[in-house]
Write a structure and sequence with these properties.
About 30% of the residues lie in helices and about 35% in strands. It is built from five helices and ten strands.
Length: about 220
């Protein structure tokens, strides 16, 4: 009788232990997904269906870097022409580290259209001539990896035109990982991130720093 009760208890303890292990694994997996999941600001399948192109929404700030500025850097023939749509963001307490910034563009009945979504706010611009040219190579980074640096920014995505450069001798300070795009394509947009120690430093970058184009 005792052996039978012990066998039943042993099975029960084994099942309970297995259940606890599965729960802990599920809980840790949930934390990992919360930390690294892409920004759920849109439907990628719908974007593909509508033939929209986009950058952003996939980059996760690495641990210890909780404040950042993000912007679009534009280039023509390897020459920096300006910074567009700068925005600052800080990791919310206990929230996801994926930066909620997305720029999306495509053709509409009235011409090219560009939309930027950041922190729950959206801005729309019609007939943007520069983005209309970005019909070639495109790269997006996922997680906390990046594709090198340029002008002090971590490159987390870029889009280029199919049109090739006129002057291929001009060099850029881009990391080797993306330098081939600057050597060959005429129009390039880079989605870049800068991390800061404080939120105030990030805001100073966005609202006080002027980055002039190359001469």
């Amino acid at each position: 009788m005792f052996k039978r009760l012990w066998a039943v208890a042993h099975i029960g303890l084994t099942v309970a232990s297995l259940g606890c292990c599965l729960y802990l694994l599920w809980k840790e997996r949930g934390k990992e997904q919360e930390t690294t999941r892409p920004f759920a600001g849109g439907d990628p399948v719908l974007r593909q269906f509508l033939k929209a192109r986009w950058l952003g929404g996939d980059y996760v700030l690495p641990p210890g870097r909780d404040h950042c500025g993000i912007a679009i850097l534009t280039f023509e023939n390897g020459r920096f022409t300006g910074r567009r749509r700068p925005w600052t963001w800080s990791v919310p307490q206990g929230g996801s580290r994926a930066i909620p910034y997305l720029v999306m563009w495509g053709q509409a009945p009235t011409g090219s259209r560009v939309m930027t979504a950041s922190g729950g706010m959206c801005s729309l611009e019609e007939k943007d001539e520069f983005f209309a040219k970005l019909d070639g190579p495109l790269m997006r980074c996922y997680g906390s990896t990046n594709d090198g640096e340029i002008r002090g920014y971590r490159v987390i995505g870029y889009a280029a035109s199919n049109e090739e450069r006129v002057d291929k001798d001009r060099k850029s300070d881009a990391s080797e990982a993306i330098n081939s795009i600057f050597r060959t394509q005429r129009h390039v947009a880079v989605l870049g991130v800068k991390t800061f120690d404080t939120e105030a430093e990030a805001q100073a970058w966005a609202y006080e720093t002027i980055e002039r184009g190359d001469p």
